[in-house]
Batch of 2 targets.
Target 1
Amino acid sequence: MLISKFKFFLLITAFAAGVSTYSFSGTKESGDEINKKDMDTTVSPAVDFFEYADGTWLKNTEIPAAFSGWGSFYVLRDNNLNKIKGILAELGTKTDYPKGSSEQFVGDFYYTGMDSANIEKQGFKPIEKDLAEVNSIVDLKGFYKELVYIQLGYSNPLFAFGSGADAKNSKQNIGQIEQSGLGLPDRDYYLKNDDNTKTIRDKYVSLIKESFVLIGYDADKAANAANSILALETQLAKASMSRVDQRDPQKIYHKMTVKELVSLSPDFEWNDYFTLTGVPEPGDINVAEPDFIKEISNVVKTTPVETLKEYLKWNIIRSAAPYLSDAFVQANFEFYGKALNGTKEMQPRWKRVLGTIDGRIGMELGKLFVKQYFPPNAKQRAMELVHNLMASLKVRIENLQWMSPATKEMAKEKLAAFTVKIGYPDKWKDYTGLDINRESYFGNILSASIFETKKDLAKIGKPVDKTEWGMTPQTVNAYYNPQNNEIVFPAGILQPPFFDKDADDAINYGGIGAVIGHEMTHGFDDEGRQFDADGNMKDWWTAQDGEKFDQRAERIVNQFDNFKAVDTLNVNGHLTEGENIADLGGINVSFDAFKNTEEFKSGNPIEGFTPAQRFFLSYANIWKIKDRPERLKLRVKVDPHSPEHYRVIGPLSNTPAFWDAFNVKPGDPMRMPDDKLVNIW
Ligand SMILES: [Zn+2]
């Protein structure tokens, strides 16, 4: 399965192993939507609005041991998990649900995941057969067969192959090949030599060694395997495109025939490979990173088969470890949980199992979730907000000083063509043919993965189904997908503190309103603007307007490059460019829409704050999050979103409505000087 490069999320979800989930102790009291007790009024809002709005909470909150960060999103996710746990408790121990029903899928999957005695007894038995198959490889022919099998059920050694809309013909799915194959979260971990990177790399090698010992290797053989795997992954890392370059849709669009692919990467047997995947004639394929795929040819030509075998085994062990016996789970957590994210202890089993079910058959969980927890009127209220924000973005486009009328017309056309998805899909995903049973937890995981990958491959050459959702309903997140020109808000995020049907407008516009505006602005950020109203990559800008956009965007890059994330590491302004543009646009669009409400027009204070002040306090409230330093170090490398502190002070220091609300004067830290100020949408 591919990770879509073209879905712009509100925030990053779990990466590396283990889904991050959470439990809550909050300070909110009824009628106290802005959490006054969390503020630090000794800090001036003109100096640091994040500290002013959230400072006491930041000082007094300890991140729970089983979490790498804590705050708004974490709390809401944890609440959702508790709700789902409640649903499962109701399903209880009943075993007579009709085969293939959501209750049967979810109930049986959960049963096997919670059966810790059986999982412990099995050790690594669930993957023993697959490891033996790899062990019996004698030549490249055998290697291709196992490579395809592992890509179907486990992970993506070497590269990923799947389906996706053609960037220049959004109605049509084509084959997509993308770089992959690394066990560390980014190529930088293989290529850089600062102390933090070296420490992480050494621990990764130790994890590989330890894992091979667990499957019966002696220490020397395990050490050799680990070293050869690191060398091979380093070769892949060197050929990998950077995350910043991957943000440019043009740089990752190289449609070619199979014949052209073969001449690009001649020593890899592509025709055999496609036949083995069940797609013998895939037609034109987009090769996202040609330099990388060229290197894959060298890899199969020059790497000893024994090394390729160790590498495949490692892919099996690494992706299965979180679901095997404790020794594997613990070793995996020590690295991916502790070393990379700073998490002190593991989540309880039930949360890990729910995270797994969410990841594998999440739409079945979603059906049960929305039935109980998504009131029909929530959809209608959210839809009203979206329409109010669309109207305000339209006016903002009309009033832009820097854009020509011709480009404005195109921008408005794109805005008017937005598809809006709220809550949950109209048409649920079909899991017919998937077998989930009470026999084996890992067996269920493997079946679900193979089912999913095959379903994905079967879309190659078929029209795009634009009704599909890329997120499950219970997810606390949102996204914009430029190829569908759609904004999507799952039921999971349509809850307090983002959205509260009983709260005043300032709270909702400063919360979910800013989120909606953020997703809308993604349609017009540095990546999104390269797609037209129909979702095709096409330049609809006059050359002059394009240049003006780039100049403005460069300013936001410079601003964020100067923010310190953790220790000596700064935010990467280019990596976070699109998200920072979306945050800034989101606030401005939502604030304009808020200005049309009765609450704003009345000017009446609530809880001692003006409507405008409440709007910005609500915004700071949704980003009330703190991360462990380890996680921040990881995020700086891999996350296109800035740390929360800067998601608050970055955009607000560019927002005149905020200065007015809190009397921020020229020269104050929360007011960008004119020569650095940025205003795009
Ligand atoms: Zn975003």
Note: The first strand starts at residue 8 and ends at 9.
Target 2
Amino acid sequence: MTEDKPKQTETPYEYSFEYIQKKLEGKKDSFGMLMKEIVRTGICTECATCAAVCPVLEWDELVGQPKLIGKCTGCGICYNQCPRTITDPYQLMGEFKTGYVANTNIPEVIGGQDGGTVTSLICYLFDEHLIDAAVVTMKDPNKPWYPVAQIITSKDDAIKSSGSIYSHSQTVEALMDAVREDFRSIAFVGTPCNIDAVSKMFDSPTGMLKYFMRCHVLKIGLFCMDSFAPEAIYPFFEKEGIDLSKVQKMDINKGKFHLYYDPQGEPIKSYTIRQLDKFKSSSCNFCTDLTAENADISVGSVGSGANKNTVFARSGIGTEIIEDAAEKGYLKVEPFNAINLNAVLFLAKLKKVSQYTARKRKVFIVRDAVKKEEPRIETKPEVEAPDVKPPLGARKFLSVSKSVNEEDKILNISLTNTIGFVLEDLKIRVVAVEELFEKSPWITTITEIFPYETIEIGYPLEIPDGEPINANVLVEASTEAFGKIFSRTLKITPKE
Ligand SMILES: Cc1cc2nc3c(=O)[nH]c(=O)nc-3n(C[C@H](O)[C@H](O)[C@H](O)COP(=O)(O)OP(=O)(O)OC[C@H]3O[C@@H](n4cnc5c(N)ncnc54)[C@H](O)[C@@H]3O)c2cc1C
Ligand code: SF4
Ligand code: SF4
Ligand code: SF4
């Protein structure tokens, strides 16, 4: 018997289980992910497949979800059998003919957004007379960093249009202007949602562009995780002391948003994406396409390292264009296996699973700490919650998490309805506890909180300047129907 064969003590089933465990080694899928993405978001179908395949999982009938009864190895088998998870690479990134890591060979384009691949492709297309116009997005000369979609007809303008603006751009309006101006062959650069609009206009039975057969559009899609509302995020940056007219580059990298006065230097300011979450365009919470799955050519930065691009050639013409642009010296390309595909898949999955949180309308209840305004929280006289016992025993109604904004001394409390049905007239009480005494109670009533909806409360911590952030904050919640459903003291200690 060779070492590869099952050991005598193992059943064939145990052998298969171990075999799949080995196959999944190194992946980040696990029981924790299954709980986070599928069970706690409320999209679990209660099929119990996860419990059926794993020896340390059983089906908890009371709670209606899988339960660990032993040590989880984190192998991810449960995650990979669940009918609700998305694990197939083509489902995550769309279909493509081939992929490359690419960057520009044109000296004026070096130092653009990432590898300058998009700009280089447009330069190549103009030089080769393959297009007579391109639709790109540039900065509004009158409003710093506001996007304006433009029709361009020269290589020089293509070079001026390089760089990313992380806001919705009305690119399709510019495309329709180009069509009306009778441009016949147009390169169109857009985010996945822009690309989807153009694809629909060409492909759907009632699509506007279906009947414009004299017009050909090459769709160059940008990878896209989020965009931000300029009317909300730019005033925030200005309040933070950033002079937008001096900003030369904005960049999102490894979960951080960076702003640069000098694109070659260090960022003037960096924020985590979580810090900027409240400025995110609401549409992006419902978006599931990271890699512009309907484009001819998709270009992004994740998966390719600094100053390079990850490129997917999806259509025949897209592939020919990349190959020819490389052959003619516009681009340097490395083959498909140079892409860090796991990084792309990881981000693509984060985006796909956002559809599961589509009902998680985030409500931000914030206090303007800078202007020292009164909190914008609806206050009502304190009413004692009725003494009714929760009828659902062990089932949790709410999950609560916290984060501290140390600069403004605000405790951000996220409250998520985990019960799976709408809670009505939810009374929330937040109060600081100092030894035996309560201080600064905040009370609010939420008329209805939907399943898996999250309410965010910004509770100001009254900590004197220079003192470490140390506090105990009691969070209580009750409803008319179920009485007190949550009570926990959150301990806030200084960061190590
Ligand atoms: C809103 C947004 C979010 C993004 N998020 C990610 C991400 O999460 N991960 C990732 O890997 N890449 C993301 N990208 C893509 C990345 O920023 C680069 O655009 C991409 O890597 C191409 O780099 P490049 O060096 O070839 O670009 P360049 O050669 O500099 O060309 C950039 C092109 O993008 C166009 N453009 C700029 N802003 C917009 C806009 N708002 N809408 C439409 N077109 C625009 C410009 O006109 C130019 O043609 C995002 C881009 C945008 C616009
Ligand atoms: S396999 Fe997925 S859908 Fe089925 S019970 Fe487990 S978590 Fe729920
Ligand atoms: S040991 Fe079981 S519960 Fe843990 S990840 Fe593997 S299959 Fe899932
Ligand atoms: S996240 Fe989606 S909706 Fe938002 S800008 Fe990107 S592609 Fe468009």
Note: The two ends are 55 Å apart (CA to CA).
